[in-house]
Every structure is written in C-alpha cells, then in structure tokens.
Amino acid sequence: MSTLSALGLAGALLAAGAMMMTPGCGSAEGADAIKGAGATTGTGAAGAAGGGPGGAAGAGGELGGAGGGGAGGEAGAPAFVPDPFQPPAGDVGQWSGKLPPGGLLDPDATVYFPKSPAPGETFPLVVFAHESGVGDQAYEQSLAHLAKFGYVLASVEYEWNPLAQDHHAPVDSMLKAIDLLTKSPPEEIGAIADAGRVAAAGHGIGAKAALWMALEGAPVQAVLALDPIDDDQGMIPSDKRPSLTPEMMGAMAVPVLYLATQLGPKGLTQCVPGKSNACRFHEKTPPGASSWLMVLESFGHMQLVDAYNCPACLTCERGPEPEHAPTLLVARGLAVAFLQYALKTESGYLPYLEGAPLADLRSKNRVLDGEEQFAFCAEQ
User: Fold this and answer.
1) What integer pLDDT is reported at residue 80 of this predicted model?
2) Separate counts of helices (H) and strands (E) for the chain
3) What is the pTM for the complete model shown?
C-alpha cells in the first residue's frame, strides 16, 4: 500500500506500539506479441495457439468457458489439465507457528498444505508475503485454493514499522520459511516441501519483496507478484526501500507473473502509484526471463485479500462488491495456471497465460484486453 493510504492506519497502529509484526498495444491480437500487453517474453509460441473447448465448469458457470484443457507444447498436442478455477477435492491442512529460530519475538507464519500425501510424496513450496496493513491469514481462502492443486503455501509475517518500513523484512521471513519447511519441518506438516521447486509470491510490498528475493539469487524458480509496489519511500527516506525497477530488474532470471489491478492507481490515495506499479516491473523484465502481465478489470489493490470490507481495504479504490468474489477467483485461477506451468512444467496451462482461455476471460471483462492494457500502462 502506498504511504498516503497507509497514513490512515498509522495512528491506530502506533497506539498499539510503533514497532509491530504486521499481519498488509495495438489490436488485441497484435498486442499479445508485445511485452507490455501481457504476453510472454521468453517462452516462445508453444501455447499461443492453444486452448480448446471449456472443460469442467468454473465456479458459478461463468468461468466454464475458460476451463478444461488446451493445446500445449511446441507441437500443439492437446493436453487436458484440471480447471485452475475449480480446485480439486481434497483436504488442506493448516499449521501456525514461529519462524526460526522460534523465539517469542520471531515472526509468525501460517502454512497450508495437502493432507494425507502418499509415502515419499513432495510438493512445490510457495512462500508468500502479505501487503502492509493486513496479516498472514488475510489470504486464507486464496492460499488454500492453491494448496489443493498440490502446493505447500507458507504465508509469513514480518517486522513492520509504519513510519519507517523496511521492504527487505519480508524477504528475511520468506527465507526463514524456506529453511523451516525444507530442512526441519514441523511434525504436523512433515517433509513434503520440495526444495528444488520453490516460488516466491506476495502482494504489494510483499510482491516487491518476492521479486527482490529472486534478484538477490535466492533459491526460487518463479515469482508470483500481485500488484507490486516499487519505490514508495515512506515518511522518512531510507536505503531500506530502494527502487528495484529499472535499476535492478536486468538481473531477473526466473519466470514472473504480474497480476495488476485496474483501480490500483485510481482514487485519492493511489494505493499503487502508476510510476511504481506492475507495468514498470514488467517493462524492465529482461527477454531471457519469461514474464506475463495481466490487469484485473475494475478491481482494486486491496481486493486481492479475501475480505471485501477489511479495515485496510477501505483506504483504496474498490470495484463493486458483487464482482469481488468472481474476479478474485480469476486471480486465483491465473496464479494456479502460472505455478503449474512454471514449477510443474505442465504445458497444458500455458494457454491460460497467453491463449484462448485468457481471451475468454478478456471477453468476459475480467481481465483487460491487449488494447486496454496498453492504454492502462501508457497512462500511468
């Protein structure tokens, strides 16, 4: 969240103590070949021609046209994949506890994981950092959705001072979560996190931290960046909040999905200023790293948390409440498709990122089309 929008929260937070642990182009066809329009920048054309008829219906039926299989692989061979908008059956376990070394003042984490794995079965690990102003459990439904597709999700807390934020603090917590779950996991979870398949993810400042992790060479193979914010300097300028783009983005070497919100830069508070938003990160992601940018239509920055009316959510521009759950489901499904493709190399999910299923979401006005997205990024 930008400094301006965070100021409304600072007074209440300071009353509880200054230092705390936070839970916070061209035509549509032509534009898809352009980096700024949301297409891939390094994967080639493997899935661009993909996308078959809808498979299992999405929630409420609206997303059904985007579900099911699609063409995958360079040969275009059909490959059925489960609908990313419709989580498979299965129980999700939940663990909450302290990050290493486990002291009273160390950050908390909440972990979501598939229950009853087969003997020896392991799953990719996703470490997630929340936006400032909310906590690690504000995304419970979204993270449980991802866990049902066979992922271990660790949502971490981090040290946060509202007057002098340290944008690297979430990085430190996410690295501790990786160590905990791959080296000495709690007994309730077990050794099910695969250290060779790890993604960093986050929202707002947490998304910036996820990108920073990858830029520093952390052991992550993909980044899921939900409406990242770059160079918000806070009330007191600090070298703990450096600008990453364009200065550092040339070092990005892993796949990235940027999910932006159309209303993030809007309104009095401008929770995601245009000079610092996902467009700026995506523009400077080098061609050698596959990256996608998608903008959720008529959707606000803080709508990426589960609850529409959370206290912090009121500080940012929001879309209509009846559209909150359906569009949030789109965000969850696109996140699943990206992780399945990037961490599990399931090529059947690539069309959700650049093929017919994505075009279907655009036609339903859930995601900006190529021309709209180009205009959105150009006006910021």
Assistant:
1) 78
2) 10, 12
3) 0.83
